[in-house]
Specification:
The chain contains 34 helices and 17 strands. By secondary structure, it is α/β, with parallel strands linked by helices. It folds into five domains: 199 residues, Rossmann fold; 191 residues, P-loop containing nucleotide triphosphate hydrolases (Rossmann fold); 95 residues, Arc Repressor Mutant, subunit A; 74 residues, HRDC domain (DNA polymerase, domain 1); 100 residues, Orthogonal Bundle (Arc Repressor Mutant, subunit A). The strands form four sheets. A seven-stranded parallel β-sheet has the order 3-4-2-5-6-1-7, with helices on both faces. β15 and β16 form a beta hairpin. α23 crosses α25, α23 crosses α27 and α30 packs parallel to α34. The longest helix is centred in the last third of the chain and has 22 residues. The N and C termini lie far apart (72 Å).
Length: 722
Amino acid sequence: MEDRDLNQELKRYFGFDTFKGEQETIIRNVLAGKDTFVLMPTGGGKSLCYQLPALLMPGTAIVISPLIALMKNQVDAIRMVCEDDGVAHFLNSSLTRQDVDRVKGDVLGGRTKLLYVAPESLNKAENVAFFKSIDISFYAVDEAHCISEWGHDFRPEYRKIRQMITQIGQHAVIALTATATDKVKADILKTLGMTGVSVFKSSFNRPNLYYEVRPKTKDVEKDIVKFVRQRSGKSGIIYCLSRKRVEELAEFLQVNKVSARAYHAGMEAAQRSQTQDDFLMERVDVIVATVAFGMGIDKPDVRYVIHYDIPKSLEGYYQETGRAGRDGGEGYCLAFYTQKDLKKLEKFMEGKPVSEQEIGRQLLQETAGYAESSVCRRKTLLHYFGERYDRGNCGMCDNCDRKHTYVEVSRDLVKVLRVILETKQRFRIEHIVDVLIGRSTEDVMMQNHNHLKVFGLGGDNPPRYWNTLIRQAVVFDYVLKEVENYGVLKLTPKGEDFMRNPTEFHMAEMRDFCDDDDEPVVTPTALDSTLAGMLRDLRRSVARRNDVPPYVVFQDVSIEAMATYYPITQEELLNIPGVGEGKAKRYGKEFCDLIARYCEEEEIVRPDNQRVRTLINKSVGKVTIIQKIDRKLALDDIARAMSISLDELLAEIETIVQSGVKLNIDYYLEEFMDVEDIDEVYEYFRESETGDLDEAMKEWGDAYSEQEIRLVRIKFLSEMAN
């Protein structure tokens, strides 16, 4: 096919005038029937490398893909560029028997050019028989890193692909992935039996992505809310490792008026599909998800990716961050890191085979090294994937933007190189550091390394110092870390030369990521008693005007928070405890205006970060309670369903109505109290100055139970305050 013809086909199907990078060369390789390996970053256009050849070649391309959501997304995309919906199908466990028959009919009828299958579907006997009966153009193995135990999404079923291809019938194979080290690439090629393969490797550098790692503190949820609010209306993905954390964080964002939705594999398939569609159609801004979300999601304008938990590997981190800025526009990659999370991940590995644990720990150490490093993040990341980045400052990461303290450490680097040599270049970083500081561990003594002349050579510096130095020596190519040998350290030719002729070497001091338990306690801003008095005076005035007790307008806890954080807009007022949208709209303007005038007159410097709303209780869902009351479910039934006592439920309902949400509990209250009795207690709270429950109990003695009084008080607050 002439150059002009291939470009015409590109324009005809996909609307592009020119190919990107090596796409055209790759496509010609596939059209020629040659085995092809493609290593191309997310957003580089991998899918087109097998989609266009499939549309042009006779027969059907079998595309092996790991996720149902990914298959659906790819099939929808192909159907959008072709007139016939039968051009692409998927075959997986989500289909009914009738659906399967329709798919097979389209394939046998020659309509289908791409058939997406899961590796599990490839192994089924009935499918094998079907595949043998059709004309196959080639096999495409998407997300090929799933083949390798060193890959971040290892799937044992992927190991059987070559066996199934041999059984079905030999045809050319194209394997594609966005993330693979040399070790993973070699593993993929060996497992798929791809000898004499053409390898195409694009640069891993995504120049439009900004990388930042922050210490993960107790206020991480609040940090995320502030970050997201600054990018209001922009699309973002937040990754968490556990489903529970996904749901909690999504609810936290929703309470703080962020358009967010949870997504994880434990949800119903229809709900996951709807969430994915809502994100693509921009009906929701933020997806909080496990790594089950995002693979193959073709949304080019994701503006940020946040990692609430540090990923298990740099491959996983790279692929997930790669979902930001695929259109070449803004892409911010923010990760939160604490060593405590690392320990949790290591604990999860317990019980797995020893070799798998070794691989997992090695991958975790690489991630930790990246997070704790003070070296340019782009340089560190590209080095991990075997690519050099020679610029001194990328200008697009937190480390390059930060001022560092540099120390001249050429003598200490020589010490490191000497210890690696003296121990025969057969040990990992932990062992080398133990020898350097003179720590007689079991392994050190077993190797008799405690008798070496270099034992204790670096005892004047702590282990953390040597870890930092070794990691930077690896990045700057003085030391080689052999990933396939679980991180064994060896000298490079550059390192050998440095030992003979030492020159200056400056090390950037590594950042400190302390565990949560070691964090200093930050006390909030002190209460401004003068402002608090002025706000109470205003509250009394507003209460008289509305003929309600002062506590109905705002409670003391809200007044004190206002006098601490100085909110001057309705949005900031919503961050004050006990203030919901109803109260903010009804009473907020006067209070905000007063605070603004006070700050100007007294030259008050307000806090940079206004408070973030917290969830009522992480174990009790505010939204769930409101929905159940709207459906007029009995309160004791709601409490039982939520595994809490009725008293605990009433406390939650009190918090809800005090914040400004209106709830109608008449249906429940009138079941066991006469209307006259309700009115009598209601009038008491109308006349009360404080609305205090204990005072009400003293007033009514044995006439009403505490529960009855609390329920009437809830009714009063809901109706009068909101």
